[in-house]
Design brief:
Blueprint (H helix, E strand, L loop, with lengths): L1 H16 L8 H4 L4 H23 L5 H38 L3 H5 L1 H7 L2 H22 L5 H20 L6 H24 L15 H28 L7 H6 L12 H31 L5 H8 L1
Helix pairs in contact: 1-3, 4-7, 4-9, 4-12, 8-9, 9-12, 10-12
Length: about 300
Amino acid sequence: MMLGFTVAFVLNAYLSHWRDFPGASAIFSQGPNALSAIQAALTAGLMLIGALYVLRSRTRSLRDDSRRISDMNAFFIRAAFWSVVLVGLADTVISFLRVEGMLEGVFGSDLSSALGRSNFRGTYVHIPLILASIAVAWFVRSLGFYWLALLVVVAELLIVIGRFIFSYEQAFMADLVRFWYAALFLFASAYTLLEEGHVRVDVFYTGLSARTKGLLNASGTLLFGIPLCWVILVIGAGTKQSIIVSPLLSFEVTQAGFGMYVKYLMAGFLAVFAISMLVQFISYLLDAVADVRGDPGGREHESHANA
């Protein structure tokens, strides 16, 4: 039901901020309204689908559901990874041609002028590449954070070589490093949670039983993890002036003269971070409850079996 509510929240945010729907809550504050009723029905319907799934799959274990949710989240993160790679490379090429005065010779005067506008570049270059990234993520099943880290290093190395050997540096070069660097840390957080890679103060945790660990993990997820993600989403996407929605609506760019046109996407990274962490926390919660119940297949059980 939490997954359904999350999807409904994202869809309703799009309908409210991009399509000027009144919002699901307007049905209570403004009286009956067809558009707000649609949004309210969307929320209730998606949560009902979650409840029906649970009722129809009672024989499926919590760990199976946890793995299924985690795999779904991995696909979402893969799509985000390929999006920043393809958009970063394409926008760098366009920015390079533009700053060097070659854009008009390659694309013509009308198209080169349009590519100088952030809303045009975002709509007709970035969004198609993001859609293509979803298709790539479907067929390429590996997570590419190691490659993204390498790309950050290569992009920074090109800045160093250009500055100190060729005395050449442009704003888009630093923008590319920040674009990939931010994606690396924000997108990899959910994967790090999956692999138990986040820093944990385990002075006492290591020696606890699997059931106690499950209780602590479940409690921490419910009290801190999931609420933190919702704080980011509600504050960041609650209104059109919110810190996530406002840059996306206006295709916000940096003030640097010929930098990349991706600043608005970096605001969207916060939404990707919050959603991916929220979904992973839900998966983590199911696994923790399975530990509390003593279900087989947990990390502790596997480690003893391997031993």
